[in-house]
Amino acid sequence: MSDSATTTIYATFKTREAAELAVEHLVQQHGIARPDIFVQPVGSKNSAGSEPSGGDVRDEGEVRTDAPLEGEIEVSADIAASQIAAVQRGFGDLDAIWVSGR
After folding, report:
1. Overall number of domains in the chain
2. Which of 12, 36, 70, 97 would you label with 48, given CA atoms 20 to 30 Å apart?
3. Mean pLDDT within 30-38
4. Residue 97 falls inside a structural domain
5. How far from 47 is each of 28, 55, 84, 89, 97, CA to CA, in Å?
6. Does this model's pTM top 0.90?
Protein backbone atom coordinates (compact mmCIF):
# COMPACT_ATOMS: atom_id res chain seq x y z
CA MET A 1 0.00 0.00 0.00
CA SER A 2 1.50 3.34 -1.01
CA ASP A 3 1.50 6.43 1.14
CA SER A 4 -0.47 9.20 -0.59
CA ALA A 5 0.15 11.80 2.13
CA THR A 6 1.54 15.11 0.95
CA THR A 7 3.53 17.77 2.72
CA THR A 8 4.98 21.16 1.87
CA ILE A 9 8.74 21.57 1.90
CA TYR A 10 10.48 24.97 1.97
CA ALA A 11 14.02 25.99 1.06
CA THR A 12 15.73 29.38 1.12
CA PHE A 13 18.39 30.42 -1.39
CA LYS A 14 20.76 33.41 -1.56
CA THR A 15 20.27 33.94 -5.30
CA ARG A 16 17.44 33.85 -7.79
CA GLU A 17 19.66 31.69 -9.98
CA ALA A 18 19.90 28.99 -7.27
CA ALA A 19 16.14 29.15 -6.66
CA GLU A 20 15.45 28.67 -10.37
CA LEU A 21 17.81 25.69 -10.48
CA ALA A 22 15.94 24.22 -7.52
CA VAL A 23 12.65 24.54 -9.39
CA GLU A 24 14.11 22.77 -12.43
CA HIS A 25 15.52 20.06 -10.18
CA LEU A 26 12.12 19.50 -8.57
CA VAL A 27 10.42 19.20 -11.96
CA GLN A 28 13.05 17.18 -13.82
CA GLN A 29 14.53 15.00 -11.07
CA HIS A 30 11.50 14.45 -8.85
CA GLY A 31 8.61 14.75 -11.30
CA ILE A 32 6.84 17.44 -9.27
CA ALA A 33 4.26 19.34 -11.29
CA ARG A 34 5.17 22.99 -11.86
CA PRO A 35 1.83 24.25 -10.41
CA ASP A 36 2.83 22.60 -7.09
CA ILE A 37 6.02 24.71 -6.84
CA PHE A 38 6.06 28.28 -5.52
CA VAL A 39 8.82 30.94 -5.58
CA GLN A 40 8.71 34.15 -3.55
CA PRO A 41 10.98 36.55 -1.69
CA VAL A 42 11.44 35.79 2.00
CA GLY A 43 10.70 39.39 2.98
CA SER A 44 8.04 41.82 1.90
CA LYS A 45 10.14 43.51 -0.82
CA ASN A 46 10.69 42.29 -4.37
CA SER A 47 14.07 40.62 -4.48
CA ALA A 48 16.50 38.88 -6.80
CA GLY A 49 18.22 37.34 -3.76
CA SER A 50 20.72 38.54 -1.21
CA GLU A 51 23.80 38.04 -3.42
CA PRO A 52 24.39 38.96 -7.05
CA SER A 53 24.32 36.17 -9.65
CA GLY A 54 23.49 35.56 -13.28
CA GLY A 55 22.47 38.79 -15.01
CA ASP A 56 23.39 40.82 -11.93
CA VAL A 57 27.09 40.28 -12.69
CA ARG A 58 28.64 41.62 -15.87
CA ASP A 59 31.37 39.76 -17.80
CA GLU A 60 34.07 41.89 -16.20
CA GLY A 61 32.94 40.80 -12.73
CA GLU A 62 31.28 44.15 -12.10
CA VAL A 63 28.07 43.90 -10.08
CA ARG A 64 25.03 45.86 -11.23
CA THR A 65 23.79 48.33 -8.67
CA ASP A 66 20.17 48.36 -9.85
CA ALA A 67 19.40 44.71 -8.98
CA PRO A 68 16.86 44.38 -6.15
CA LEU A 69 19.06 42.46 -3.65
CA GLU A 70 16.57 42.77 -0.80
CA GLY A 71 16.76 39.28 0.73
CA GLU A 72 16.69 35.56 0.11
CA ILE A 73 14.35 33.65 -2.20
CA GLU A 74 12.05 30.91 -0.89
CA VAL A 75 11.08 27.87 -2.95
CA SER A 76 8.28 25.70 -1.63
CA ALA A 77 6.67 22.62 -3.09
CA ASP A 78 3.84 20.29 -2.28
CA ILE A 79 5.38 16.81 -2.43
CA ALA A 80 4.58 13.25 -1.49
CA ALA A 81 5.77 12.41 2.02
CA SER A 82 7.93 9.65 0.51
CA GLN A 83 9.96 12.30 -1.39
CA ILE A 84 11.00 14.39 1.61
CA ALA A 85 14.51 12.96 2.09
CA ALA A 86 15.39 13.05 -1.61
CA VAL A 87 14.11 16.61 -2.06
CA GLN A 88 15.97 17.78 1.06
CA ARG A 89 19.21 16.27 -0.31
CA GLY A 90 18.60 17.94 -3.66
CA PHE A 91 18.05 21.33 -2.04
CA GLY A 92 21.25 20.86 -0.05
CA ASP A 93 23.18 20.00 -3.24
CA LEU A 94 21.91 23.29 -4.69
CA ASP A 95 23.26 25.30 -1.72
CA ALA A 96 20.01 25.96 0.10
CA ILE A 97 20.76 27.95 3.24
CA TRP A 98 17.68 26.62 5.04
CA VAL A 99 15.32 23.67 4.41
CA SER A 100 12.17 22.84 6.35
CA GLY A 101 8.97 20.86 6.07
CA ARG A 102 5.81 22.28 7.59
Report:
1. 1
2. 36
3. 95
4. yes
5. 25, 14, 27, 25, 16
6. no
